[in-house]
Amino acid sequence: MRKRPGGRITKVAPPVPGVNTEQQGEFADLEWDDVRLFRAIQRLGSMRKVASDYGVVVNTIRRRIKHVESRLGLHLAHRSANGIVLTEDGEKLLRIGQAMSDAAEWDVSDGTKDVLLRPGQITIACTEGIGTLWLTPRMPRLQAVLPNMTIGLDFDYDLTRDRTRAADIWLTYEQPAEVNLITSKLATVHFAVYASKSYIQRHGVPSTVDSLKDHRIVEHVGPGVRSEQLDFLIGTERPQGFIAMRTNSSLSQLWSVTKGIGIGALPTFVSEITSAAVPVPPELRIRRELRLVYRSKAKPSPAILATVKWLRECFDRATHPCFADTYIDPKTFLRDYSETNIVNIFPTPFDEIK
Question: What does DSSP assign to residue 134?
Fold first, then answer.
């Protein structure tokens, strides 16, 4: 506890308490998703209603219950004429889960509390490319603001998937259809054709869209990612060996392009990260709007507010013109070696690996 200006008392968020104690040792492997499941069982009392609440089929709930019971070695629920009933151990699980939740909640000036999927953890979901290449190098700034919290970074390769039950905040290129969500435009991500210097020395550069057929392509595919852009650009008739490599990983695509395996359509923020790949003609002028989404009920959460502020700083268009609405030539971008260079993630500099 500490005093605020004016004499008010603020409860500082403690770490989530462990449950591996002599009294609660049987729940040592307890996970927050388990608590949420059994809270739903207690609240709804019907397996069908629980399945509807979770957006899954009834058999999935049955398997989840059996899996939790097997992992903990306890009998937690049974079926009765009135529906699902928790056993004594099941009720104990709920009490421990409530203690975990209470310990991880923060009080703010108006008395509201954090509403997070996992107490003590703020989870951000985004594409693997944005998460690995852009957000990870900036993570120390968020950690400094939320020193007592775990920061979860969840990479999603299926951009069409509903993330409302998987993350507190998520970044998406799609406009969510669900209600009770706060969504706003965060940035515009532009794409350009990139090639390594070694590739250019061997094969030259494509001068027009049609000349792309004469080159080798590193293609990024995945659920919700592939938009058949190549078909629109050059048609469906593709020369033999046109696709040099196909991957569902943005990082793998970037590495493959920098190593000269082929050319690829990459986000222009790559030019702020490394000089191992450079933009080449033709200009694609392909853009996608990146949206920030979180639940409206979580808006008063200090952790949510701090993370949203951090994300807006990460994609600030004044500092990083690559995210402006209008296309700006990536060749004019300046690399910030102190923060944005992903070279430091690896044992040796990105630009120098042979």
Answer: I
